[in-house]
């Protein structure tokens, strides 16, 4: 059984569809009940199996209560996809404290609480898969996304450390995959001014996520060519990296009055 957080919209919704096509039984979490129920309904109509729960992943107590309910109603989770994310964006000095805290509650701390709920059963069976939807900003911090970049750096490190811990514990059957997509047209990033990059679509990312699960890849970069860029970056000074960004004109544009879960 696979659990996808943030399944009512964007990448999470498409990951749920793609997993359903591969025959997985789905449990869907989202803060938006109508969107989440619609995703579950579409999966069930196409012949799959999906159950939806309304969950605010920023609330650790709510995660715990829902996880307990889930275990009673549908059983243990074999694949955990931590996808739910939020982005406010803007100049650091103009960011509200509440928004910064919310960003870390959803994008980073929620991973701790979901993993603590579902990892014990995986460890007991020495079988399972934890998937982290991070971002390329976890590898190269981006202006006007200081809070978001930091939250994704943190969750990248979380999964990397967890993978090493599982190895030391001798639980090699529990796999981890960290996914780092470039900018995706989910509604979080409104548009991007870039001479080279175009916005990815959620379904494109979802296909790569499921491939990463199937082939037990530790890291997945979308598009895949970004992995080569990271290799080259290791030999390049930070000034060169900034020059490349300036040359490409990578400047995300946001609506400062709105935000949404991914």
UniProtKB/TrEMBL annotation:
Q: Where in the cell is it found?
A: Membrane
Question: Topology in the membrane?
Answer: Multi-pass membrane protein
The main location class comes to membrane
Keyword NADP in record: yes
| One Pfam family cited in the UniProt record for this chain | adh_short
Q: What would you give as a GO molecular function for this chain, any one?
A: all-trans-retinol dehydrogenase (NADP+) activity
GO cellular component annotations, sorted alphabetically?
A: lipid droplet; membrane
What UniProt keywords are attached to this protein's entry? Lipid metabolism, Membrane, NADP, Oxidoreductase, Transmembrane, Transmembrane helix
Family of the protein in this entry: Belongs to the short-chain dehydrogenases/reductases (SDR) family.
Q: What is this protein called?
A: Short-chain dehydrogenase/reductase 3
What organism is listed for this UniProt entry?
Answer: Mytilus coruscus
| Lineage summary | Eukaryota, Metazoa, Spiralia, Lophotrochozoa, Mollusca
């Amino acid at each position: 059984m696979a659990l996808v957080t943030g399944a009512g919209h964007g990448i999470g919704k498409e990951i749920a569809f793609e997993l359903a096509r591969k025959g997985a039984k789905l449990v869907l979490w989202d803060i938006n009940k109508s969107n989440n129920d619609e995703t579950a309904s579409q999966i069930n109509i196409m012949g799959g199996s999906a159950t939806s729960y309304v969950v605010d992943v920023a609330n650790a107590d709510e995660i715990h209560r829902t996880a307990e309910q889930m275990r009673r109603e549908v059983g243990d989770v074999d694949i955990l996809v931590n996808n739910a994310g939020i982005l406010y964006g803007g100049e650091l000095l103009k960011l509200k404290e509440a928004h910064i805290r919310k960003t870390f509650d959803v994008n980073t701390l929620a991973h701790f609480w979901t993993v603590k709920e579902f990892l014990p059963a995986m460890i007991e069976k020495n079988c399972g898969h934890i998937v982290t939807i991070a971002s390329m900003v976890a590898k190269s911090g981006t202006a006007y996304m200081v809070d978001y970049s930091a939250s994704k750096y943190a969750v990248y490190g979380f999964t990397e450390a967890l993978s090493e811990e599982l190895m030391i514990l001798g639980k090699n059957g529990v796999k981890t995959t960290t996914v780092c997509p470039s900018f995706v047209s989910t509604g979080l990033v409104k548009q991007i001014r870039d001479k080279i990059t175009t916005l990815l679509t959620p379904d494109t990312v979802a296909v790569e996520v499921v491939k990463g699960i199937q082939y037990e890849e530790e890291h997945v970069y979308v598009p895949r060519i970004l992995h080569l860029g990271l290799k080259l970056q290791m030999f390049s000074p930070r000034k060169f990296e900034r020059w490349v960004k300036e040359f490409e004109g990578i400047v995300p544009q946001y609506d400062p009055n709105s935000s949404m879960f991914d």
